[in-house]
Amino acid sequence: MDCCVIPLRHGGLSLVQTTDFFYPLVEDPYMMGRIACANVLSDLYAMGITECDNMLMLLSVSQKMNDKDREKVMPLMIRGFRDAAEEGGTSVTGGQTVINPWIIVGGVASVVCQPNEFIMPDGAVPGDVLVLTKPLGTQVAVNAHQWLEQPERWNKIKLVVTKEEVKEAYQEAMFSMATLNRTAAGLMHKFQAHAATDVTGFGLLGHANNLAAQQRNEVAFVIHNLPIIAKMTAISKACGNLFNLVQGTSAETSGGLLVCLPREQAAKFCSEMKSQSSGAGGQGASGGAWIIGIVEKGDRRARIIDKPRIIEVPPRGSQAANQDNSSTSPDQNPNLS
Amino acid sequence: MDCCVIPLRHGGLSLVQTTDFFYPLVEDPYMMGRIACANVLSDLYAMGITECDNMLMLLSVSQKMNDKDREKVMPLMIRGFRDAAEEGGTSVTGGQTVINPWIIVGGVASVVCQPNEFIMPDGAVPGDVLVLTKPLGTQVAVNAHQWLEQPERWNKIKLVVTKEEVKEAYQEAMFSMATLNRTAAGLMHKFQAHAATDVTGFGLLGHANNLAAQQRNEVAFVIHNLPIIAKMTAISKACGNLFNLVQGTSAETSGGLLVCLPREQAAKFCSEMKSQSSGAGGQGASGGAWIIGIVEKGDRRARIIDKPRIIEVPPRGSQAANQDNSSTSPDQNPNLS
């Protein structure tokens, strides 16, 4: 499970908590703080929990930074973390900072819940539909962006992508990673989700497999569609599948929720995700939701079909993003009908 | 405060939680795990909380270790952490591990409490007595032990201490740091403690100052006695007060609780600390408790008197430890009567 759920000594309540910390992967310290916070909270959201009682921040300040850089960078990172926590309706009241060769940023999210506040991620049934709430490809975008400064690497991908496209994809990845999965968590209740997880280090397929393995029913997850930040598939292929993006194992940071929904609810879930997210400054792509597969009877594993359909998700604000790119209907792909 | 206390949405309950992580300071990985856990839990114990609903473990594995060392060291450290958690009546069900240049070990402790389960650390009144539940000098002992292998350093202290004494002091410090402050937390309720904190990185005086600063009443803490692991005072003096040990600012790791008790309860608290700790394998020194000072009317600061009495605390198991070395009576020092 994404969180630990501890039954308490008091009145049927449970303590649900999670922790995560990692190293900076975007250059903007403020956005990095937001991403770290979104990433920690995401584990609660994956259980359909929309509230958080408290966050702790875990930081290490790099000993290799000079004082000036440190005083500039760390407060921004902390502010980003706090702002995202506030957006999540919670606050940061505790933590610990140490000195280390590397910067580390992360935190702990804790909430005390009644049983109806969370959805145990084990109720998928054959016939359910799989929905993903953020596009894949954050790792590829972050790496490609670093390669702009590394001619040897850049030469390998410059035939399939422009510098401008890489910069746009990087921005898209950054905003996507910084987006809270809170809206999705709320809609999980409204549309009776049966199970969910968030997509992070093991990639879509890794987390789908973990989720499938813990189902009470004998089910299998079959993934037909891969919504991917535009051009990232081409980059991944151009460097010899370095990332295993279309194989589903490219690592994501603060990825979307993978949600199992009753078939009749999935389109409404996607549609509402899209309409709610456009209000939060996240117009277009990463505020969307895509139907990516189905739940069959099976041996509690997940797989991606041979030649899945790639949904190129354009960066928000781009012309393409102003068209409707979210798959809100299961009828778009014959495999799903 | 040592913890954050978050009022919950449910029935008058509060979420109390704390986090701490740091770098290894003893060579034995199992003991290091125990120390890290004791250090995390200590913040709860300082609030008189004896229960813990859940712990998360935070680890970073050093990239500089080879696989063989890593497979040997990390499981031992984890086991030490888990064993100490079990001794604290709790368990570790969550956490995060990353790769880093340095080993990091720490955790998060959380508990959901009713108001009567914790003691807000702000109720000291003039006439109270200050009690400390572990001897000072852990940092000096750990450093002196490293200096056994550094002739230049060793030459500075070899006139005041033998190698055997340094090894004994190191053992004593290690066991003391690995000892949970849970017994003291329980006795805080029994003997109506008015406030407490645990002694860690800022040293006795630093934490005493912090505690004094948050008192509701206008009080000052005056410290007359310093219980210190045997020979550590001599070492500290021999290296030109490098550690500021008798000045009260030498850092401690997983130090004891500094407790403000009503004057008539202090001796009983100390006596019971001593009798309870001898059962837990911690006979003698670090299972003790020492009356170290008094609470006066004042400006919410702490100070150590000029020429405080140094109580040399012998290593447990040594001949000296079998005599009674705990100051269990306020009458031992005229300043306190």
UniProtKB/TrEMBL annotation, chains A, B:
Function: Synthesizes selenophosphate from selenide and ATP.
GO MF: ATP binding; selenide, water dikinase activity
Ranges where the PurM-like N-terminal domain occurs: 2-105
Organism expressing this protein natively: Amphiprion percula
Residues in PurM-like C-terminal domain copies: 126-300
Signal peptide start-end: none
Pfam families linked: AIRS, AIRS_C
Entry keyword Electron transport: no
The protein, known as: selenide, water dikinase
EC numbers on record: 2.7.9.3
